[in-house]
Design a protein that fits this description.
The complex is a heterodimer of chains A (249) and B (263). Chain A has 249 residues and is mainly alpha-helical. Chain A has helices at residues 2-21, 24-31, 34-67, 73-79, 82-85, 88-99, 113-138, 141-149, 154-183, 186-189, 202-211, 215-248. With 263 residues, chain B is mainly alpha-helical. Chain B has helices at 2-29, 33-41, 44-77, 83-95, 98-109, 116-121, 130-140, 143-156, 159-166, 171-200, 203-209, 219-228, 232-262. The chains are: A mainly alpha (249), B mainly alpha (263).
């Protein structure tokens, strides 16, 4: 436990302490400076967009992997984990190779917000798939068949039987993806261009301001990001609690 | 019909976001021919960057493996007050941005930080050198072993351990003969994930390392450096090696999974 507190708790305490030292007034004015606000807003907006896309495509992908059957399914299943295994800087570079200035398909999104969205979608792809998949595997087919036999449409079956079961999985996957999207830096530095007010996300803001020697600005935004992380963790904890209560009942 | 729509939606999405870009890295790396690729990869600074990444990984992975197993045992087997809190703190690195981690270490070990002045007086440099990079990497790769071992420990229960104890085995014997063999695959799986994370860490290390070419530049930092200095072939070359490593990690994970299920 000493290891845990030295490695994890102490640095975070130092960060919170450093931002407090300057006084609450300074903290507030730095955290709400136009550039910091723009960066935070962009990060949050992107994270929301990424969450919605992931909820949709992640659930479909998980469904296809569990219920569908086709040649090469196990390969697809393995490939899902690739963003976890691939260094994020390499992820950014791979996206530049296909959707950058020398794109072989003629799509160049580099240095725009679309690039940020794309990079974040790449790194957060596994989360929803991996939280929904095990729930779908456990799900009994009988309830769905009963629903169908009683004349429910496919949509109705999905909405009233499947969705309530996989919803906690979708939500906790989305929460993880959200946290990751807010904090991501490696995949973004090369492709986003990092222009203040346009394509500078919160994590890049922190990074550039540390390098520029502006510790107060970097700490203020970092503390806001830290609070978002804590909020997401609390949410996941709550969801886990709800999901297990459902099981016990 | 519906089945095919879903199938092609899912596969199409994967192709656009995941596989397409990855294939392009291989194409780009060989753009300028094999000789150019070989030249960038054998550049002394590139070799040093790879060596540094390996050294950091070799220090961080064993430490986090031991910690992960101990931590998982504490969370699952010992009912102590605050076990829930420990469980939550272990998850923190998954939710916190690597840059925020880097900044925290920067503030802790920097000139005006809590520990910085003490280390400076004793002639040890933490920031902008190996120690801070190792600490940053340990932080971000901390949860993986514990996350894999905790569910396995819950699942196997403690009947066998109790039986061993009734038969007179002491704590150490029980751990080595009963507990360890049954969580073996979970540990290996966790180690594979930890290794992947250590090799690929960028954000936290970028903040604390100072990114000095040939000294504190890791492989991932070198990719960025090469790309920003218009050495595209070099950037894609190093990226290719890193990508090959992650494919290797992925293959290992896939091979391990069924065994884990059978155990």
């Amino acid at each position: 436990m000493t290891y845990l507190s030295i490695v994890v708790v102490l640095p975070i305490a130092a960060l919170v302490w450093a931002s407090r030292e300057e006084g609450l007034g300074t903290f507030w004015s730095v955290a709400t400076s136009p550039e910091a606000l723009a960066a935070l807003k962009l990060s949050l907006g992107m994270a929301f967009a990424v969450s919605i896309v992931n909820a949709f495509f992640g659930t479909i992908t998980a469904w296809v992997l569990v219920r569908d059957d086709f040649r090469g399914k196990s390969v697809v299943n393995a490939v899902i984990d690739l963003p976890f295994a691939l260094p994020t800087i390499v992820a950014g570079l791979t996206l530049l190779a296909l959707y950058g200035p020398q794109s072989p398909v003629g799509i160049d999104v580099s240095l725009t917000r679309k690039a940020i969205l794309l990079a974040l979608l790449f790194v957060t792809l596994p989360f929803v798939v991996r939280t929904v998949q095990p729930v779908l595997l456990e799900l009994e087919l009988e309830a769905e068949e009963a629903g169908r036999a009683l004349g429910a449409s496919e949509f109705r079956v999905f909405r009233s039987i499947v969705l309530p079961n996989i919803l906690p999985g979708i939500l906790s996957g989305v929460a993880l993806a959200f946290a990751r999207a807010v904090g991501e830096i490696g995949a973004l530095v090369l492709i986003a261009g990092n222009r203040p007010f346009k394509t500078e996300v919160a994590s890049v803001f922190v990074f550039l301001h540390i390098q520029g020697g502006d510790q107060a600005g970097a700490s203020a935004v970092a503390v806001v990001m830290l609070s978002i992380s804590f909020a997401v963790l609390l949410l996941i904890g709550g969801l886990r609690f709800l999901a297990t209560r459902h099981e016990r009942a | 019909m519906r089945k095919y729509v879903l199938r092609f939606t899912a596969l199409g999405y994967l192709l656009l976001v995941l596989l397409g870009p990855l294939v392009m890295v291989f194409v780009r790396a060989f753009d300028k021919g094999g000789d150019a690729l070989w030249a960038t990869l054998t550049d002394p600074n590139t070799l040093h960057a790879f060596k540094l990444t390996l050294v950091i990984t070799l220090i961080a992975v064993p430490l986090n493996t031991v910690f992960g197993v101990v931590c998982a045992l504490a969370i699952v087997r010992r009912r102590f007050p605050g076990a829930g809190l420990v469980n939550a703190v272990v998850d923190l690195p998954l939710a916190i941005s690597p840059v925020v981690v880097g900044l925290s270490l920067f503030l802790l070990y920097g000139r005006t930080g809590w520990f910085g002045p003490w280390f400076e007086r004793h002639g040890t440099q933490i920031l902008f050198s190996l120690p801070s990079m190792v600490i940053a990497t340990i932080f971000v790769s901390l949860p993986f072993v514990a996350r894999e071992v905790v569910p396995t420990l819950r699942e196997i229960g403690d009947e066998q351990e109790q039986a061993a104890r009734t038969l007179g085995a002491n704590g150490r014997q029980t751990f080595w003969r009963i507990t360890l063999p049954s969580i073996r695959w979970a540990i290996i799986y966790g180690v594979v994930l930890t290794t992947a994370r250590c090799l690929g860490e960028y954000g936290a290390v970028a903040v604390v390392s100072g990114n000095i070419e040939g000294r504190t530049q890791t492989a991932t930092l070198r990719v960025q450096d090469a790309y920003e200095n218009f050495n595209q072939a070099g950037a894609y070359g190093i990226a290719l090696v890193l990508a090959a490593m992650s494919v290797l990690v992925l293959v290992t994970m896939t091979l391990l999974k069924p065994k884990e299920d059978a155990a």
